[in-house]
Design a protein that fits this description.
heterodimer, A: mainly alpha, MetI-like fold, B: alpha+beta, five-stranded antiparallel β-sheet, 18 strands
Chain lengths: ~290, ~350
């Protein structure tokens, strides 16, 4: 490339670079730096404290609980929503009467904003008048305080997340399934391959690139999506349903401990970076791309 | 071995039916081609035999056992697809063994059969490659190996050579035929390419608009086309058809001879040259004979000026006759009585 072309290329990249630098890279670096300083108090500006914030974090029981919650949250919602999405996609990919309506029905949760979804599910979970407890009541079972009981608060959030995410992932699976060559299935049928053999030996390996893509998105969402916490539990009771990002929000904007929030953010970024490396660096090698 | 018998098979998605009144048999060890233009119902017929489409009516028997409503895997047949249908994520070896693994054939048996087919189709050095790393011809061989290894009673092939380039196609044609002869395979082969059908098949089933036009050995289709469609479909360039009164008269371009002017042959006709196509070994000449357009094929490189005139004639045994309304062949003895012959219209040559 000659000089003019180089200049052109950089000029074309410039708007995106400016936006990314201003709103993503600079704040990220500032957050990282901020995690080594304490909070400004009174007239005193913030001072360098080294690893003090990180030492505090290691001793913070709530941090460990939140991290544990988030790990569980990811371990359950990611595989469950992927499995559900795949099942639904295979189901609506078949020759099914009225499949357009079924597809639309499965996709609806995705169209709704998380806040709206949370409000709908609040109605399901509410102790006295909630849908779930009413249904249980018909069978003579005592209702559960879904969001108020520390044992049920996090699982309740998980159920809602799976419901919300599965429809979105289904669309990716559906698109991938429709891109698969029909004649592969015909060839398998001629060899007398059963349904499970076809799924295990053909469909699943050929969907692997899609699965990896969905897996990454689902895992990021497990750390990123906390809108529903604002409506449903606010992390309670007693942090039983608190997640890492919500805990960061609480520290920054409820407790005004911005230094500690910056430290937590740094930890979260490290976790996400590790996950990304695991996915692209390790899992990617076993995937067949067309 | 195997004998396939098809009776009154019909499939329709609308009007006209995709396949109707399909009736034929394939004997054990026979190579039969289903030939026809696109949309003639040949693939539909093949897919019904494979069990990939359900027929509306009719029966399919393999070795006297009715298989019309069996699932594809229970019919004991193999199929080679036009797109090869190789599993892109599996190696050549796994692709070939897929059927045996699914059917839980023992490991030793798998190994024995694999070694046999690998040697047969010459894929030894590619066993661990994925289909994406192979050339079209190699993919073709893998697809073939997958069909051969199943040792099925009947092998169906759906235009298996149509994705190859011309040179490779000619090679694979003779290779495929040799393989079929060596193994005594029973093959039903779908193609739209008459060269493939003529050169490989023991018998050809010619289809048109979902119906069988003619069944016969390649030379029968060439020498005694049953209908005007068969006459025009078999042979390149197609047979010249001249409509006279209630008959259609057919002569193949390669059967028209040039006659020295002034020889005064009784049956010669004068035609006007419209153009020449030089094809290398021979030349194709477009002629105008009265109001009829004809093609004539002569050997060598012939340069003829458009507008010049030629004397042409053809032997009586090379002349075919068809009914103008039904398109059906009219038998030679029936012809004798009526004595249909192309006659000059003297007025044309008055000048």
């Amino acid at each position: 490339m000659n000089r003019t072309q180089q200049l052109h290329a950089w000029l074309l990249l410039l708007p995106a670079l400016v936006m990314l630098a201003a709103f993503t890279h600079t704040p990220a670096v500032q957050t990282l730096l901020h995690s080594f300083y304490d909070n400004p108090m009174g007239g005193k500006p913030s001072g360098f404290v080294g690893m003090e914030n990180f030492e505090l974090l290691l001793e913070d029981e709530i941090f460990w609980q939140v991290l544990w919650n988030n790990t569980w949250y990811g371990l359950v919602t990611v595989p469950a929503s992927i499995a559900l999405a795949l099942t639904m996609a295979i189901w609506v990919n078949g020759r099914l009467e009225g499949r357009a309506i079924v597809r639309l029905a499965y996709f609806t949760p995705t169209v709704l904003p998380m806040i709206a979804v949370a409000n709908i599910w609040l109605f399901f979970y509410t102790p006295e008048i909630g849908l779930l407890n009413n249904v249980l009541g018909w069978f003579g079972i005592d209702g559960i305080n879904w969001l108020g009981d520390p044992d049920f608060a996090l699982p309740s959030l998980m159920a809602m997340t799976i419901w919300k995410e599965a429809g979105f992932f289904m669309i990716f699976y559906l698109a991938a399934l429709q891109g698969l060559d029909r004649s592969l299935y015909e060839a398998a049928a001629i060899e007398n391959a059963g349904r499970w053999q076809v799924f295990q030996r053909i469909t699943w390996p050929l969907l692997m690139p899609t699965t990896l893509f969905i897996f990454i998105n689902a895992l990021i969402n497990a750390f990123k999506l906390v809108d529903h916490l604002f409506i449903l539990t606010k992390g309670g009771p007693n942090n039983a349903s608190n997640l890492l990002l919500y805990y960061i929000y609480e520290n920054a904007f409820s407790f005004f401990d911005t230094a500690y929030a910056a430290t937590l953010t740094t930890v979260m970024l490290i976790i996400l970076a590790l996950l990304a490396w695991l996915q692209f660096g390790v899992l990617d090698k076993g995937v067949h791309y067309r | 071995m195997s004998r396939l018998s098809i009776q009154k098979l019909r499939k329709s998605w609308g009007d006209p039916p995709a396949a109707d009144d399909i009736d034929f048999t394939v004997e054990s060890g026979e190579f039969v081609a289903l030939l026809g233009p696109s949309g003639c119902g040949k693939s539909t017929t093949l897919r019904m035999i494979a069990g990939l489409e359900a027929p509306d009516s009719g029966h399919i028997y393999l070795n006297d056992k009715e298989i019309t409503h069996l699932s594809p895997g229970k019919r004991d047949l193999a199929m080679v697809f036009q797109s090869y249908a190789l599993f892109p994520h599996l190696s050549v070896r796994e692709n070939i063994l897929f059927g045996l693994q699914v059917r839980k054939v023992s490991k030793e048996e798998q190994k024995r059969r694999l070694n046999f087919v690998i040697e047969l189709v010459d894929l030894g050095s590619h066993l661990h490659k994925k289909p994406g790393q192979l050339s079209g011809g190699q993919c073709q061989r893998v697809a073939l190996a997958r069909a051969v290894i199943s040792e099925a009673r009947l092998c169906l092939m759906d235009e298996p050579l149509s994705n190859l380039d011309a040179k490779l196609r000619a090679e694979m044609r003779s290779e495929l035929r040799a393989l079929q002869q060596r193994l005594g395979m029973t093959v039903l082969y779908v193609t739209h390419d008459q060269t493939e059908a003529m050169s490989m098949a023991d018998r050809i089933i010619l289809l048109n608009r979902g119906r069988i036009e003619q069944i016969g050995r390649p030379e029968e289709l060439y020498n005694q086309p049953a209908t005007t469609f068969a006459a025009q479909f078999i042979g390149a360039p197609p047979m010249n058809l001249i409509r006279i009164e209630n008959r259609v008269l057919g002569v193949r371009p390669e059967h028209i001879q040039l006659v020295q002017p002034g020889m005064g042959l009784k049956s010669s006709h004068r035609a006007v040259v419209k153009g020449c196509d030089y094809l290398g070994a021979d030349t194709l000449i477009q002629l105008q004979l009265d109001e009829h357009s004809l093609q004539l094929r002569i050997t060598g490189h012939q340069k003829l000026q458009p507008g010049s005139s030629l004397e042409i004639s053809w032997a009586e045994q090379d002349q075919h006759s068809f009914c103008r309304t039904s398109g059906q062949r009219v038998a030679a003895d029936a012809l004798q009585e009526q004595h249909i012959e192309y006659t000059k219209k003297e007025t044309h040559y008055a000048a």
